[in-house]
Specification:
Elements: H1 2-20, H2 22-27, E1 36-38, E2 44-46, E3 55-59, H3 65-74, H4 78-91, E4 96-100, H5 103-106, H6 117-131, E5 135-139, H7 163-166, H8 170-184, E6 201-205, H9 216-231, E7 239-242, H10 250-254, E8 260-265, H11 295-298, E9 301-307, H12 317-327, E10 332-335, H13 361-376, E11 391-392, E12 395-398, E13 403-407, E14 411-414, E15 430-433, E16 440-442, E17 448-454, E18 457-462, E19 465-468, E20 483-486, E21 490-494, E22 504-507, E23 515-517, E24 522-525, E25 528-533, E26 547-548, E27 551-552, E28 567-569, E29 576-577, E30 582-589, E31 596-603, E32 608-612, E33 614-617, E34 620-625, E35 633-643, E36 646-650, E37 654-655, E38 669-674, E39 680-683, H14 685-688, E40 693-696, E41 702-707, E42 713-719, E43 735-740, E44 757-762, E45 769-777, E46 782-789, E47 794-799, E48 804-806, E49 808-809, E50 822-823, E51 862-869, E52 881-885, E53 887-889
Parallel strand pairs: 3-4, 3-10, 4-5, 5-6, 6-7, 7-8, 8-9, 9-10, 14-15, 29-38
Antiparallel strand pairs: 1-2, 11-12, 12-13, 13-14, 15-17, 16-21, 17-18, 18-25, 19-20, 21-24, 22-23, 22-25, 26-27, 28-30, 30-34, 31-32, 31-35, 33-34, 35-36, 35-38, 36-37, 39-53, 40-43, 41-42, 42-52, 43-51, 44-47, 45-46, 45-51, 46-48, 49-50
Length: about 900
């Protein structure tokens, strides 16, 4: 009787928990399991259900190469780091993982698999991904050595055979076959499964970004031989092969006996060396494939093994990319690469990429939204051209607001503060955001997640504040943090009817002992995990170990507080108009509530004034220099943080303040104050050379900086012999300069109406060279005008009324190279519309002083300039044509 009673009570408790927390039971069975297959129409399907596969996620590389070494240097345990990062991937709703395995680190030169630390960590990573329900596609052969950005140390077969030799050298081919056989038959130390048996490793991509050339027959033969090596192990999973890296031999891959083909997308190139600014949504509007109607192609599954909006932090690109992938028929897409949290503070692993939930919260939540896009949008569903498709399905992407959103009755996600009302607040089950919304008003800068566990019971997860302190895309070093993490108490207000205004908060994660109650929905929280419950709701059944989705309620992973001195991130305005107040805004970290911040403003060797700076949002301070101090000349200023009796002055973070008699540091911020009608410099070669995109559109074209006879620096664009045209390569201008200048207009906003024309001054070393000047609006409308430059220096004036709607050149050039080079968008009005404010500017060439350059226009509309040289439509071409470009804006 006693034993029966215990069993009955146990059953009652289990039944009661399932009944009272249905969300916990439902979420756990959502993700499909088992193997996949490719049907005759080229659709990847689940074996069990026959439903279409749609999986979205990331690449991640901690077991290998620089990431492995960098973890050692910062003292991070690899397994713990992997466990934390995979937890974050799960929080972002990702269900796909891909990596090109660094074969060079786990093989010898004969292709024998080496049982070492790298392979062990890959096994551990696979096991962790499986626990989170994340599916895996592995690319066993990377063809890379392991050094970047350091010297190579790998000793496997990829250290002695180049990509060109890999498919032509018999010994290299044998080494790859041997390696594939052993890799597929490797037994995971943690799952105890052979790689070829693991149902969560759903497919294999043979090799990463091979480089092939004609004839096609030997390429096809090699691809078939590698695919056969995989199948000879008994593996029946789909075999994918890269087709985008060498598009001029795509026929060879389409003829190969593989189940699927793989692509990548770097829509604005890689490694600009600085953060790209401007509206890049046209770059990711569509992903047209030139051979998309070929029957050999349509019979194969499609996978995107890598994609990224490189050198861009804007949280608007990923949702558009995910939509374009679905439109093109892709069923798998994995971003490259998610930054390990332990080293994301410095962004040393491929500095052209930067993505981490803790360090780039808005961009990370845009990836969460993109995952939702990928799963909701139908395969091959079509969309109109941007900007008509900036709102689609349950999603919105706004360049102007730097905002991506998802809004359904059950889910509400946003990447920055928004006023959008949830579609049905009473039905919400999941909320995530950065900034504030009608649901959550939050004072911090980190991401937060709200997940409904049951009626009146929610889980809240709050990440620490992340504050950018440097451009993360500059040259990287583990000695140079680019983002600062701060653990702060932050105000939080939640407006959910079922929680009410007096809900309780109980800390769940380790060392979080919080026990408090909200008042009118308001509370103060620190980073961590909390259980929220409406008044009268019991939460005793929920513990840190309670399972929910693919996580446990008490799980939490976040970097420690960054132990560095206070930091200021500020760029002075290019110019300001005389007689107008000058607003100065900066990012400042390290200020406590009891500290004071003030601005010391000084007209050069003139009047000095000290102004209090106010905090407008977390880590953002602002002051306004009065108009009486803004007379023509140079305004110098310093930002001073006072902590008790100690003062720190920026730039530099020096002890003391500028008005001290012994403050000897020369560093200062400065902005020129100019009279009405003064030129506005928008590109100065000596100052802006690291912040423009000036590159050839073919491998024989190049740019550099030279000095003029007067000793000033000038930009030189050189056009060399044309490349041999590839079958899928788009045509376009021979070379181009792109310069973003929207941020330089703010200080002259009151004068923009006085700029009436563009003045181009320059020369080329051949006569009748056509130069096209294109202005792009914030909404990506392009307006163009052309001028003719000859061998002699000349000045050409272009009235704004002469600019006409035109295609937008996508520069930097999209990759892979078969993607379109222009975006078609027909604006409804001419540039000369009275609603627009215009300008004039000029170029200077080699024999004249290079001063400053680009052009200006309406502050709210115009932000980017393209100069194309020479126009591809002219048909003229002379090797090594040179154009030296510089310019400055002038008013009428």
């Amino acid at each position: 009787m006693h034993t029966y009673l215990r069993c009955f009570l146990l059953f009652l408790l289990l039944w009661s928990d399932a009944f009272l927390t249905p969300a916990l039971a439902q979420e756990a069975i959502r993700r499909p399991e088992g193997d996949v297959f490719v049907d005759k129409q080229g659709v990847l399907r689940w074996q069990k259900t026959k439903k279409e596969v749609a999986l979205f996620g990331v690449n991640y590389t901690t077991p290998f190469a620089h990431a492995y070494r960098a973890h050692q240097r910062v003292g991070a345990a690899h397994e713990q780091a992997i466990r934390q990062d995979v937890y974050h991937l799960s929080r972002l709703g990702l269900d796909a993982f891909r990596v090109h395995v660094w074969d060079v680190e786990i093989t010898d030169t004969l292709g024998n698999l080496q049982e070492n630390e790298h392979l062990k960590l890959l096994d551990f990573l696979v096991a962790e991904l499986k626990q989170r329900g994340i599916k895996i596609i592995l690319t066993p052969i990377a063809y890379w050595n392991n050094g970047y950005p350091e010297p190579d140390t790998g000793t496997g077969f990829s250290s002695i055979y180049s990509k060109a030799q890999a498919y032509t050298n018999p010994r290299a081919i044998l080494a790859q076959e041997r390696y594939l056989t052993q890799f597929l038959n490797h037994r995971n130390l943690y799952t105890k499964l052979l790689n070829r048996e693991d149902p969560d490793i759903i497919a294999y991509e043979v090799c990463n970004e091979p480089k092939y050339s004609k004839p096609e027959a030997r390429v096809t033969a090699f691809a078939n031989r590698m695919a056969q090596a995989i199948r000879a192990t008994g593996c029946r999973k789909p075999v994918f092969y890269n087709i985008a890296e060498s598009p001029d031999v795509y026929d060879a891959i389409l003829d190969a006996k593989v189940d699927g083909v793989t692509f990548q997308w770097y829509p604005q190139g890689l490694v600009s060396g600085h953060a790209l600014r401007g509206n890049f949504l046209p770059y990711v509007d569509h992903y047209p494939i030139p051979f998309r109607t070929d029957k050999r192609f349509t019979s194969k599954a499609k996978m995107v093994y890598e994609f990224e909006s490189a050198d861009i932090l804007q949280p608007v690109m990923y949702p558009f990319m995910a939509r374009s992938f679905r439109e093109a028929g892709f069923q798998w897409a994995t971003q490259f690469a998610y930054d390990p949290m332990a080293i994301a503070f410095a962004n040393t692993e491929y500095q052209t990429h930067y993505l981490n939930l803790a360090y780039t919260p808005a961009k990370a939540l845009s990836l969460l939204i993109a995952s939702k896009v990928f799963h909701r949008v139908g395969r091959s569903q079509s969309f109109p051209n941007y900007p008509a498709d900036s709102v689609f399905d349950a999603f919105r992407a706004s360049y102007r607001q730097q905002l991506s959103e998802m809004n359904t009755p059950e889910e509400f996600y946003h990447t920055s503060s928004t006023n959008t009302q949830p579609k049905k607040a009473a039905s919400l089950r999941h909320v995530a955001g950065v900034g504030s919304s009608p649901i959550v008003n939050y004072g911090g800068t980190g991401a937060y997640f709200l997940d409904r566990l049951a009626a009146g019971v929610w889980r809240l997860e709050v990440m620490p504040d992340a504050v950018p302190i440097r451009d993360p895309f500059e040259k990287a070093s583990l000695s140079k943090p680019v983002t600062q993490i701060l653990w702060n108490d932050q105000p939080l207000q939640i407006t959910l009817a079922e929680l009410g205004g007096n809900f309780s908060l109980r800390g769940l994660n380790e060392d979080n002992t919080t026990q408090t109650q909200a008042s009118d929905g308001r509370a103060t929280v620190r980073p961590g995990v909390y259980l929220l419950a409406a008044g009268g709701k019991s939460t005793s059944r929920y513990t840190a170990q309670t399972a929910f989705n693919q996580i446990k309620l008490g799980e939490f992973a976040a970097p420690a507080h960054t132990k560095i001195a206070p930091q200021v991130l500020h760029t002075p305005t290019a110019q300001v108009s005389a007689g107008q107040p000058v607003r100065i805004t900066a990012r400042l970290t390290g200020a406590e509530p009891q500290d004071s911040v003030f601005l010391v403003a000084q007209h050069y060797y003139g009047r000095t004034q000290t102004l209090a700076m106010t905090t407008t949002s977390y880590a953002t301070v602002e002051a306004t220099v009065p108009a009486e101090l803004a007379y023509p000349g140079l305004l110098r200023y310093w930002i001073v943080l006072r902590k008790g009796q100690q003062a720190l002055t920026f730039p530099g973070g020096f002890t003391g303040q500028p008005r001290d008699w012994d403050y000897y540091h020369a560093e200062n911020y400065a902005v020129p104050i100019v009279a009405a009608g003064a030129p506005l410099p928008l590109f100065t070669a000596a100052l802006d050379k690291d912040h423009v995109e000036a590159r050839g559109l073919a491998s024989t074209n190049w740019t550099d900086y030279v000095t003029t006879p007067t000793g000033e620096l000038a930009l030189r664009l050189v056009v060399g012999q044309p490349d041999k045209l590839k079958s899928a390569a788009p045509t376009g201008p021979k070379t181009a300069l792109r310069a973003y200048f929207g941020h330089k207009l703010a200080g002259r906003a009151t004068e923009l109406a006085s700029f009436k024309e563009v003045v181009v001054k320059g020369r080329a070393n051949q006569p009748a060279t056509t130069v096209k000047v294109v202005l792009q609006t914030k909404d990506a409308a392009a307006y163009a005008a052309t001028v003719q430059l000859g061998a002699e220096m000349q000045e050409v004036r272009i009235p704004l009324s002469a600019f006409r709607p035109d295609a937008l050149l996508l520069l930097p050039r999209p990759y892979p190279g078969f993607l379109p080079l222009t975006h078609e968008f027909a604006p409804s009005r001419h540039l000369s519309s009275p609603t627009l404010r215009c300008c004039k500017w000029w170029y200077k060439a080699l024999r004249r002083p290079m001063v400053s350059c680009t052009l200006i226009s309406n502050q709210s509309l115009y932000n980017k300039l393209h100069v194309f040289y020479p126009d591809a439509l002219t048909g003229s071409f002379t090797p090594r044509r040179r154009l030296f470009v510089g310019c400055r804006a002038k008013s009428v």
